[in-house]
Amino acid sequence: MKIFSSILVVFLLLLNACAVRINERLQNEIAKKVEAAKTQGSKSVSDILSPQVLIWDPLTQMSWLFPEGIKCPLCDEPLKVSNFLDGQSDYRQPMVLHGKSSNILLVSRILRCPHSHRFFSHSQYVLDFMPRAAVPFILSHKVGFERSLAYELYEMISAGMEVSECVRLLNACRNTYFQGISELISQHPEGQMFKNGEVEYFKEIMTSVPGRLMIRRCFECIYNEKKNSLEDAVKATTTSDWISIDHTFKSVKHIKVHMNGRYLTQLKALCTVTNDIGQVLTWQLCKSTTFKEIRPVLERLRDRFSKQNVVLKEVFLDQCCAWRKLIEEVFGENILVKLDLFHAVQRVTKFVPKHHPYSKYLLRDLRMVFRHSGDIGLERQRETPPPHRVARKMKKFDKKWRKFGLKQKGKTVYPKAAQDEVRKLLKHIEKGCVSGIQPGKGTIRNEALHRKLNQRMNKNRISPTFAIALMFSIIYTVNSQLARSYKRKPHHVDTIEEFGLQSQDAIITNDESMDADETQNKENIECKLAVWKLLKKSAVSIDPTLACDKGIELLQHILQLSDEISEEGHDHLDENLKSHGLMRVPSNADGSCLFMSISFQLIQLLTDEDIGTKISEHLSTLFPDLFCAGEPCNIDQETLAVRLRAAMVDEWRNNEEVYREFAPNVNFQTEALQYLRRDVFAGDMGDLMVLAVSNVLNIAMILVTTDTDVPLIPVFPSNVLDKRACIYLAFDRDRMHFDSTARISVKSKPIAPSTTPPSPKSSTCTCSCGVNDKTPQKRCNEEAESQYKSRCPCAKQQKPCGILCRCKGCINSYGHRSTKNKGSQLKGATARRAKRQRSQEWMDSKPVRSREYMQKKGHSFKAFSKKDDFHLIQLNKSPESSAYLKKRFTEEHIKRRQKTLARRDKYAKSAMGLNKKGYRGSRRPRALTARETTMDANTWEPGIYSAEKVVDQQLKNGSMQYLVKWSSSDSCTWEPVQNIYDRRLITAFEDSQRAVNNDNTQAKKKKKKKKTKTLG
Hints:
Elements: H1 2-15, H2 24-40, H3 45-49, E1 52-56, H4 58-61, E2 80-84, E3 95-98, E4 103-112, E5 118-120, H5 124-127, E6 137-139, E7 144-146, H6 147-158, H7 163-187, H8 196-206, H9 212-235, E8 242-248, E9 256-259, E10 262-265, E11 269-274, E12 280-286, H10 291-307, E13 314-317, H11 320-331, E14 336-339, H12 341-349, H13 359-369, H14 387-404, E15 407-408, E16 411-412, H15 416-430, H16 446-457, H17 464-486, H18 518-538, H19 551-559, H20 569-579, E17 582-585, H21 593-606, H22 612-622, H23 637-654, H24 656-659, H25 668-671, H26 689-697, E18 700-704, E19 712-715, E20 726-732, E21 737-743, H27 760-763, H28 793-796, H29 822-825, H30 850-856, H31 883-912, E22 947-956, E23 959-966, E24 972-976, H32 983-1015
Parallel strand pairs: 1-4, 3-7, 8-13, 13-14, 18-20
Antiparallel strand pairs: 2-4, 3-4, 4-5, 6-7, 8-11, 9-10, 11-12, 15-16, 17-21, 18-19, 20-21, 22-23, 23-24
């Protein structure tokens, strides 16, 4: 009996182990809920299937947060409560929040003002008046989460859980919850009478699981709330007297941006700056590994150290000699720049075979090179030896392993690439880059951080915003763990720093340096508004972000998008011009197309009655020897173009600080003089030519581009001459060419081009519009209605239809086709229709200089007319004058050559009767597939001549070759299938071979019959 009583006491104690003692207030609350539960009664099936509902009425539930109420942001009147989003109408539907076990319905209240302006109580405008802890949910533009679930997802992803695993976990929780509901309904007395459709509707609405993109968006929302605290924690980190700078590449290889149906990679590396215990002081996502990208980060870090009273003495990095002077410019001349030992050893070990049996012995000897003779432990205990000792050990190491030359499976443990790296490393050793380094200093601690980042960031594709949020959370966790381990206290200072991606707009300006006149600023604003109204009136749809000072940045971005030449560029440019009521006035592609186009429009603006006087006065101040205010202008267009080029160069050299923002690595004083030559127009400064000329003339310019997404690029000068003056230029991005423009009028005649007359060869144009069309319709009309698009080559080139044209119903606005006395005008073969010929190759087999190419195409390349121009001396003296054109022509030739080889491969397959995969039927061996043949540059290409017959065939290196007899010569050569166009030659040869084989077999059969007769 005593044993039973003792067991009962122990059991009762175990039952009360989880109990908690509550106070009087909680006792009263529990008593009220118990009384309410007694009167509630049993739950029905409808109560079981009723979803969780969150009633959100902050003005009533949390009235202490709004002592003065909330005013309408539109009319500044007080907002009052109205109806709930109870689903009684279409616009009063509740929102769905993703919870832990199931979804929650958010029933929010509508707020109204006396002017009938409505706001939801869950809108961001209302939530900004409340503390973050008072809002039990998080909303984005598409999805909402319960705050407790959002915090759990943030912590799980920060700890290393995959987003897909979070989705699977939430799905399992939803299924478990629904299984419990289903079991409860099945045991209920009314469960059999309840409709299955209601259960399925409950499952569809309340157990839906957010996808990966929604969870990533939730993670970004929590990061945005914690962003300020995370940045303050990183800003509070400090160091002793040295830092390390390192780049990692694997962490950013999956960061991509989705654009135009493709995923584009924009980032190349992640740069981290760590302190003496491995904490991240600052970090930056870089597009390249150049110093100019991390220079602003290091300058802000220097300012932080100065406020924290930290004296920096050493910097460890991989680019020691290349960045030494740049580091000294940032941190001072007394700073020591050392080569990190980890990267020094890695330069050699990355070429050593990992699975070689002697690789570990080589690595051990290499590690001992940077130690004293007595320092033989696992970890280095003393500083690195002086330069002469390290150099002597390195030479001894190189001699030893080069002498052994141990090989396994054809691979040596000390290959040629590793020997080259050792010779390069000796130069750093002799300069003292690896001497005097104390134990523990370097970037070895960064590798642990890099491994953790690579493990977390090794996803298929992630967006830059999610990548920054994830990296920041990982860096914050690592810094917190290291601070607790080393008991490092934070040192908070007030600094302005940016992490992740540097904002181009976050530029601090000094208000005292802005001494511009208010009237001039007013004129600039009026000019921009006038241009914007003009664009808005003429364009169907236009992005409002274009009407800003970012025109040059947008132009630079468009120029860097693609280097491919599009065949549809001309059509897109003409369509964009026509949609704005403009037409193109062609200019010669002689290197001065921009200035010739601008000078053409300047001469047209001088004839304007309203703005011609102002422009004439301004040009008289720029070129007093050419213009006189109040007198008619008789200046030559080419002379004006030459003087505009010289004025542009003077603008660059006199106002270098204005253009330094767009080209920070350009020496304007020296490189600007190169643009005085006609054949120099590319490079970083070439993108600024439009802005410089606009600042010289004080006239706004609008570039009409070939891009359908960004058809217009406005460029505004710093000072505006007249807001009504504007120059329109047609810019062909694919060919880097500018043309002038003119307004389209219904009764206008063809405008004379702004160049010298073209050669007779280029002026000939023929068309045959509507010859085979039986319906009567007018043709060759460039100004036709919108439903008809002219494809007449003469009208597109702004040329009249000539006597060789065969167009039907010609109404060409540039000149009708004359049908009178046609027979008398044409004689002989000219009267007949010109035979259609194949177009010749656009390029030769070798690249040519820009001058030779333009002369070959019939363009005039004239020198400058004035002898007193000081840039005539430098004309055509630089061997790099045609580097840009040579590069573009070489790229175009390579592309066309690849297309030609692909076409030959296609013809060869059809000649052999092969399918797309290279088989003849279903059992053709792979050895007979058509392969690309590499042609020697010194040998002639027989594929361009006609073959007479095929003599023999052979199988060489897995591909079939034929002995071809050429009609143009008496020689026979072995050629692959790609060089034989005529399929009949191969079929004739195969038929002859088949006939010979049949004759041989019949002869053998006759011999066998004779032998059998003699034996019998």
